[in-house]
Amino acid sequence: MVRAEIITIGDEILYGQILDTNTQWISLELDKIGIKTIRKSSVGDQDTEILAILEEAQHRADIVFITGGLGPTKDDLTKNVLAKFFDSDMDYHPQALEDVRVFFEKRGRELSDLNRDQALLPVKAQYIQNKQGTAPGMWFEEKGTIWVSMAGVPFEMKAMMEELVLPRVAQHFKTPTIVHKIVKVVGIGESYLSDMIQDWELSLPSHIKLAYLPSLGIVKLRLTGFGSEAKQIQQDIQREIDRVMPLIKGYVFGYEQDELSEVVGKLLIAQSANLAVAESCTGGYLSHLFTEIPGSSAYIVGGVISYANEVKMESLGVSSQILEQDGAVSEACIVAMAQGVREKLKSSVSLATSGIAGPDGGSEDKPVGTVWIALAHSGGVITRKLQLAGTRKQIIHMTALNCLNLLRKFLLNELTQ
């Protein structure tokens, strides 16, 4: 296994003023060529701190990637610190100097002394061209480790990595082939899922590993295979997925980058159906999950945000008697909402939500997290009562996911009611 460490340099990252997207992207790209990231670190603009983290990294990693701190200003310390760390003199690199000169010439600007110093590099460094900016990259083979220093600006760093660094890294190291496959499930918690498939998990072949990647309402099962041939690993992983599928089929909604709302949208299109939505507690969030998908106009008719009882009555036909006797958070109300929006917008099916998202508004009979959802279709109305927990945003999100999954299972004819 080739071990990589990624170090980002800059006070702005530690202050939270800039989101560090570089480390995630680099990790993903390294994974594609069989290199495992074992540590990610961020350090501020202090030379002693940078030196300390470099000293640590050389004992952990086979290759270290460094981003940031290569600009022309006094707070950009990376080049000087690397020169000190490797006990190297500094000098102008001829090609780096020419590239910086051409960069400014093409933009009709003169090369200042400050920008000229961008080409001042440690003598021990091998030059990595930055075609998108003026901060040169550097490649060192020192102290038994490969060191790659690149610009911190994401689009500059990515261009350097894709065009120059990754091909060179792949040539330098003989790495195993790694293949990932992600199976996405909804409607079951991580611990219940683990119990359900534990016998299958324990019987996985040694070159295939399983990881649980849970998020709010959704669990991703990531199978990772190691070997010498990608095609064979892919076949091995698919065989294991086929083996576990009878256990989890009812919960699987997609693979890799599939989104639940996108999957449901494709099912609606396949059945020439369309959808209307009536939302109370979700306040438009459910509609948003549908309409953020390109092409959703093919199956989304529209919706009504009936937050106030007056809107429930006037726009959806919910009777005042239902609201007085049963309340807005009730099965009777949610049935009327789902039927009302389906009839009003003349859709094939409809979804409706009404609940108490909190943090206030609950009672002994209807505590915070009490939610009713409904699906209306030509044959009637299907309802579900949910008792959710968490913050207001979490309850709203989980309500929407339950609606999406209810519709998914209905379209697949997997509902018992």
From TrEMBL:
The protein's matches in InterPro entries, at most eight in alphabetical order, are given as: CinA, CinA-like_C, CinA_C, CinA_KH, Competence-induced_CinA, MoaB/Mog-like_dom_sf, MoaB/Mog_dom
Spell out the Gene3D superfamilies in the cross-references.
3.30.70.2860, CinA-like, MoaB/Mog-like domain
Show the Pfam families listed in the entry: CinA (PF02464), CinA_KH (PF18146), MoCF_biosynth (PF00994)
Q: Where is the MoaB/Mog domain?
A: 5-172
Family assignment from sequence similarity: Belongs to the CinA family.
What's this protein's name? Answer: CinA-like protein
